[in-house]
Amino acid sequence: MLKIIFLLFCLLSLNAGANVLLAKADMAAGKALHEKNCIACHASSYGSDGSAIYTRENRKVNTSKGLIAQVRACNTNLGLKWFEDEELNVAAYLNQTYYKFDH
Asked: Which ranges of the chain would DSSP assign to H, the alpha helix?
């Protein structure tokens, strides 16, 4: 039982750390990177402006930590070569605009 409590505490701590990172990010820079690099791909998959990827009922991202991981995966898979602060900027913009995870 103590192991389960410890693991839950660790998971909550990791997500809290992600929230702090998002709170310190530059959302205007994140918005610009998102508009330049993300919208066209998402629009081709989800139609319109592509925002349905963030608001769909069965979305994969459910935590701020998961959001950062997903932005990092897109960065890697698409070869965008963003630095970590740029990933965080995009994640913060997406969080503010669509996800609304607490910071």
From this structure: 2-23, 27-37, 39-46, 52-55, 64-78, 84-94
Q: List, for residues 67-103, the tens digit of each pLDDT value.
A: 999 999 999 999 999 999 999 999 999 999 999 988 5
> Which residues touch 93 (CB under 8 Å, ≥6 apart)?
25, 27, 28, 30, 31, 33, 34
**Both tokens assigned to 88:** 């965080």
Judged by DSSP in three states, 48 sits in coil
The rounded distance, in Å, linking the Cα atoms of 101 and 103 is 7
Is the dihedral angle over the CA atoms 83, 12, 95, 42 positive or is it negative? positive
* pTM score of the predicted model: 0.78
